[in-house]
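Folding Task

Wanted — backbone structure
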Amino acid sequence: MLSATLERALNDQMNSEIYSAHLYLSMAAYFESENLKGFAHWMKVQHQEEISHAMRIFDYVNDRSGHVVAQAIDQPPSEFESTQSVMESALAHERQVTAMIEELYREAQAQKDYATHVLLEWFIEEQVEEEKSVIEIIESLKLIGNDGTGLLILDGRLAERAADEAA
């Protein structure tokens, strides 16, 4: 059984994962408007992945006889300056999510809740991958600079991302 503190924190994390999904959907819409279909596809896959993360927490809380609380989701930004700024925002957001998960991990350790500890280890590994993938795109964008051809090549590469890579 989950403690009230961990149950509340897991519900907050589930909410954060759903917000992340909305954020990535908003970013996908921006890329669609810029005719960067590959970037949009990449963000749509991110959206699906974040929903699967939220559902992983949903199932876990229920499996531990906890109470899932669906919370209001904040509206993500809908205006962005550039492709580079979108990806930098995505990285900043992923780092914020990492910090939240690490705080949850510390709480699970403090409470000696080993089952939650194991769940959160999966999320920690996932966050390493999340941050790495966004950093790789940002580094590619830096190399490309203002080269439209390079941007289109990267866009094509991002269009190849398979949905089953998510989660």
Q: What stands out?
A: The chain has one domain: 4-72+81-161. The first helix runs from residue 4 to 33. The chain has five helices and no strands. The domain at 4-72+81-161 is CATH 1.20.1260.10 (Ferritin).
